[in-house]
Description:
Number of domains: 2
Structural class: alpha/beta
Mean pLDDT: 95
Number of helices: 10
Number of strands: 12
Low-confidence stretches: none
CATH class of the largest domain: Alpha Beta
CATH architecture of the largest domain: Alpha-Beta Barrel
CATH superfamily of the largest domain: Aldolase class I
CATH topology of the largest domain: TIM Barrel
Shape: elongated
Strand order of the largest sheet: 6-11-10-9-8-7
Amino acid sequence: MNISFKRLLENEINRNVLIALKEDIGKGDLTSNFIEKNSLSTAKIFCNENAIFCGKAWLDKIIKKQKSLKIKWQVKDGDFIQKGHCICEINGSTREILSIERVCLNFIQTLTGTATLTNQFVNIIKKTESQIYDTRKTIPGIRFSQKYAVKVGGGGNQRLGLFDMALFKENHFSANGTFETLLNKIKAKNLTNSIQIEVENLNQLKIALKYSVKNILLDNFSNSQIKKAIDMANKNTILEVSGNVTQKSVLKIAKLGKLRISIGSLTKNIQAIDFSMLIEDKKSRST
């Protein structure tokens, strides 16, 4: 199935921006109504810690939906930004600027957090042959946004959802009877090269290799088991490691061989990056 990630992402950005503005502003911004209608301002957004920036398209969409606002960028997605750096300048109605402030910051603090964490893992293993991947453990409603942020941070996308690749796990084996029963069904449909099988031990790995499964996920394998798995597999087998991988453990795993290392915490455990918006210049529109 040919899935356009770009289209999925664009649709999600548009949907989420509309939802975010509606849930925050509702029928009107009661606080900003105390500001004169003809008041104009220049506001700047600053990053308050070192980070890998992500979220430009989300702010562009928010600004586009306002009547008077214009944005001037100082960074692009993927840029390393230092603490105190100004990422953009927004000009226009003071009321509009203040009404969108929190929504703007919410998007970039979350996406930049994901990109930054991903980049930390990527940098740790950069001298190895292994690669960092995400999982489906995402925040509901912003999966494609988070997966985009992972790519901005230098990682890869494991799969977008249930619709673009089949990954068979323990519950699928039980639902089909046995591990080998499912593998026989997969082989009968000639799908061993286009699906992924999760194995929980070396015996299951041996069976999966016997059926010529190309893409195999090693679930919660110890480092010694991963090494044995690498020795058992042929050069065309894709081996992916998953299960409680941390920044302390990832390098030892990555050094074992050419592996895909999928990490749920990239998108599941969000540590937002601190941003702030400050109005630096204010004047009135001439009448």
